[in-house]
């Protein structure tokens, strides 16, 4: 069995094209001995337009852009790329691999080529399973730095090499092969077939997502209960008091502490206050210690008085 680690760079990505300009790969045996390593540079047949998702200046590739018009087109190099990726008994892997597979899919459609068909692993996903952290992504550079792997970012062949070294380091630490590493963490490989792409999954990730869903549903249940409570209790609002004519808003985190939120709301209505569901519409914004979210900033920007829950309660009980 062989391992193929690959990375793709693009001159620009749009809805219908990826304009691949570099396909870097590192082919090894099961012991991670390098058998072949190459940066296939490709004429993207379009201008370089590298921006981030907000349209601002994005990454800068370590290549001479003007030279790309002299390289083969994607159609010309596609047979070699396909052979590398679709060879039997080869485990294909990358970092955040689904993005690169998406680029291949876009280019296959762009040039009316047959769909690629292969399974693929994602070393970033393996790493996330290994450390049990699914709430955020881990960049290639960050993982490489932790493992002492040096490389030139965004040079496709170097990214592929760094990905290989990360896989090797994880296998050495776990004392197993790459395939055994997938099995250890119950990882199902991603797949591209008939232009459809499925991502890597695992038992641990599914449990994490199920827990995220459960917590989201619980938060929504509590918010609905609080809103219903406000609708009932506002009818008992006193006409006079310290908060007469004032609109009060609670932070989401405070609302989730339902008993405390209900108690403060009752005291608020006893002092003639109104409840505002939108932070930007309130006169007083009540929050928990340590909060610094967007709603608090929005309330502050609109000149609302900011009070911690304890301060608000103390004010109401004076």
Number of strands: 13
Task: Tell me, rounded to a whole number, the average pLDDT.
Answer: 93
CATH superfamily of the largest domain: Ribonuclease H-like superfamily/Ribonuclease H
Which topology of the largest domain does CATH recognise?
Nucleotidyltransferase, domain 5
**Second-tier CATH architecture of the largest domain:** 2-Layer Sandwich
Number of helices: 11
Helix fraction?
40-55%
CATH class of the largest domain: Alpha Beta
Structural class: alpha/beta
Instruction: Please give the order of strands in the largest beta sheet.
Output: 3-2-1-4-5-7-8
β-sheet strand percentage: 15-25%
Order of helices and strands: EEEHEHEHHHHEEEEHEHHEEHEH
Overall body shape: elongated
Separation of the first and last Cα atoms:
76 Å
pLDDT < 50 stretches: none
Supply Rg.
27 Å
Domains, number: 2
Give the biggest beta sheet: 7 strands, mixed
Describe it for me?
The chain has 318 residues and is of the alpha/beta class. It folds into two domains: 2-199, Nucleotidyltransferase, domain 5 (2-Layer Sandwich), CATH 3.30.420; 209-317, BRCT domain (Rossmann fold). The chain is built from eleven helices and 13 strands. It has a seven-stranded mixed beta sheet. The chain has a four-stranded parallel beta sheet with strand order 11-10-12-13, sandwiched between helices. Strands 6-9 form a two-stranded antiparallel sheet. β7 (190-193) and β8 (196-198) form a beta hairpin. The longest helix has 31 residues, at 203-233. The radius of gyration is 27 Å and the shape is elongated. It starts with a strand and ends with a helix. The mean pLDDT is 93.
